[in-house]
Specification:
Layout: H1 5-23, E1 31-37, H2 43-55, E2 61-66, H3 77-88, H4 92-99, H5 103-109, H6 124-141, E3 145-150, H7 157-169, E4 175-182, H8 193-202, E5 205-208, H9 214-225, H10 231-241, H11 245-257, H12 270-278, H13 282-289, H14 291-303, H15 309-315, H16 320-332, E6 336-338, E7 344-346, H17 349-357, H18 361-377, H19 381-389, H20 399-414, H21 418-430, H22 435-448, H23 454-465, H24 474-490, H25 494-506, H26 511-526, H27 534-546, H28 553-569, H29 573-583, H30 603-614, H31 618-635, H32 640-656, H33 659-676, H34 681-696, H35 700-710, H36 726-736, H37 740-757, H38 767-775, H39 780-797, H40 800-811, H41 816-830, H42 836-852, H43 856-873, H44 876-888, H45 901-907, H46 910-920, H47 925-932, H48 936-950, H49 957-961, H50 963-969
Parallel strand pairs: 1-4, 1-5, 2-3, 3-4
Antiparallel strand pairs: 6-7
Amino acid sequence: MRDRDAELRSVEAAVDRLCREFAAGGTEIGELLAFSGRPGIGKTSLLHEVRRIASLREGATVLFARGGEQQFKEPYHVLRQLLQPVLTKLEADEFRQVMGTWEEVVGPAMGLKQPKAGARRLDPQGVRDGLDYVLTQLAPRRAPMVMIVDDLHWADAESLSWLAKFAVRSGELPVLLVFAFREDENDWPTETQGLRRGVLDLASRKHELSRLTLSSVTDMIRAELGDKAEDAFCYEFWNVVNGNPFEAGRLLDQVREQELEPVEENSRQLRELAVDATGMTLKSWLDRLGPATLRFAWACAMLGTDIRVDLATRISTQSTEGARESIKQLRKQRVLTQAPNGNLEFVHPLIASSIYNTMPDATRLGMHGIAAVEIENAGLGLLAASRHLVETHSGEGDDRIVKKLRRAAVEHQLIGAPEAAQRCLHRALNEPPADDIKAEVLYELGCSALLTDPGATVNQLRLALDPDEGPLRPELRVDATFRLSEVLAHSGELGQAALVCQEEAEQTAEPARRQRLQAASFMWHAFRKSEEDGPGRSARLAEMCRNLTGREAADRAVLAMRAWDLTLRGASSAEALALADEVLDGGRLPKGLGWTDTTWGFELPSMLCLTYIYNDRIAQAERLAADAIIQFEVAGWSGAHRGFAYFLMGLARFRRGLLAEAEDFLRRAYRISERIGAKLPLAWGAVGVLVDTLIARGRVEEAWEEANLFGFHPPYHPTAMVLPDAASLYGKLLVAKNRHAGAAASLTEAGAQLEVRGWRNTVWAPWAGHLAIAIASDEPERAREYAQKAVRDARTFGTASAIGSALRLQARIEDGQQAVELLEQAVEHLGQSPAGYEHAVALVDLGAALRRVGRLEDAQEYLYQGIELAQHCSAEKLVDRARRELANYGLRPNRLGLHDFQETLETLSGPEREVANLAVKGVPPQRIAEQLGVHLSLVNRRLAAVYRKAGTGPDGLASALGLQQRLEEEPGE
């Protein structure tokens, strides 16, 4: 710890602050302390002192891990070192609380349990999200917590990517992060160089360790060689090692071994000795250790950190006695030391690197092969052995190696490490595999990148389907084709995705497989922005639907597609809902069409969810979307899958008029999409509905800024259909901005394209109604034609929200009694729909129209109703508008006093009245839940609705509902 006073003071201050502020009740007190410097500068020694300082603090939890040069491709190696010790010590109940719903995701990744039989591959982002949850639960329970990582530059990519992200959030927890790493970017593996700057930028305390002073090095020399060491010798020694502590220690060893007197005339020999001390060659290590001991050291260097003696013994092919002698010699030479758990570790990582790098190529390849076998025989599994398997000699065509590598790839995917799986499969291809299974390995390689690297997936699956690469079993050909189309579609290449399925279907003889590909082709066409023969495709899909003979998953998939097709076309809602209901099994997705089912993907249940959203069955859609969110979380799929589930829930909430909740879900969906890639179809949908939501909340300028920031304007996404229709949303935004000329142009073009395709759903694409508003002042007759068309199309579709919304828009271009009559119809229809915001707008519009024709008493009532519903919807500007309507004409901007008791009671649903009665009697929510046999959260939601409708809190509830008098009248109360 020479010349490290400033660094140690910083450590003491950071640990003191953490412990002091936690003891005072602080929770958001974490920070990142970073130490960087050149190799051998003393980072490891400093972190040992950090561990000592932190462990002396009462109640502190100290977690430690070290990256390893040979283990930076071993997934989650660093995080397992950090977290396994503390997680395995938790009691069963606390473990379940810490893990929550993430046990099946985080458990396998952290090596705490085996994946469940039949488990699906994990999305790496899902594992990272799960780790976020686990640490937010664990940290307060084991606070104050100090997490120390040495040699961060050699951390595996999976661990480092999480640590870099977690460092951002550490300030929200009672956690001190302490990282040590090499400063030079060239010392970082290529895979993780991009994370280096992020870690540096996040550190609140940064220290670049400087070289030792001449005085410190002189003290080291004289402590080892005696006080007679001459100043000139010490100066040259310091100059040779450049103040590097590690190099100084190694050179001192050489000086002692050579029995070199520390006098000025011997100082010229120091440079020659330093070459042997720091740049150990094969010859120098052989001379120093001998062949048997060096071979044992090679085995240890291959194992990396936390070296098991029995494994190193077997890998080095030594006897137990021979290994014991080798260890004795290596400890004497200050190469190895014993860890607290009885295993071995290198005195310094630079020594391990030096020894590993002296291995002849043939020896290294052979010993990696032995290591793979011995690790597997020791029961450590293929995950641990695969690191060595990928380093073995290829070109032998060994079927056993190929088989093991393929199995290891599967296991890597089950813990959320697709890059490691791909390394195994690339190595299997280099073996190479037998001709009859090469295409299968290519297929597996393509599938391994499904969640992380779409480009690689496309390339590998195309190769797998290429006959020149060998045969692919028929069932795998169909699946490979579907996966290829899926990735193409998610990348926006919907036309190509449909074509791939269509061409393969024409060559597929087996009926069920052919139907799957035909259905997939229909599905991708349905999501396209434009199509050559939309009506023709719809007719072919209808014919396919009529010819179904059963209700297997493939048949139900066709029904779901037809239901969505009818919805887009604005055909009978009743027919679309009948088909959608046939798909479900007891209100739930059937086997084979689940959210995480890989046969069809999540697009099919998404179509079903969208069908319910646009057909006024929003509660059913929300149940499906909620299931999707939960299932994707449990499966660890935190990428596009969960992002789309958030989008669906946000869209459903928007359609219901729960605008604040909608905004939250949509922003989450957008953040996930941007994390995956720029301007994916998911992002277009999320931003589009977010803009619509902000318009509804009256934040038009913010909506305009969001649209411009993203680029939500023509030409939109080049190939993918946006949900809802992008051009209609943009036109609606222009109308809200009073840019009527631009809105008219945009909506006219949108309408023309949709009419050609035969898509006339006025909720998904309300272009005609908004076009009528945009041109009303200049072309009133044409405006009426478009408004009437929108109403006709809405009546053909038949949902209450579609008809009510179209009537409301038509009323915008009418005056006087005509407007009142249209709005009365709109309110009647929307009152029978779940479209809360649309209903609120219609109520306010009707109140304003009634005021204009002099019916002030009726106007007042509708405006009050509109205010209440708009408040429930978080439509703040609509509330303000209604209040202005009331205030400007001498009406009160709020209701005078409370509702009549009976009127308020009538607004409560049966379950709400039930909990209200019990709450008035003083029964606490937990007992209400027990008495009614429902979840506490449901009771709390019902009570919140009661308080909102009654306009009071718990204390005034009895009075507000008139229940106090009733209780007094009841005997025995």
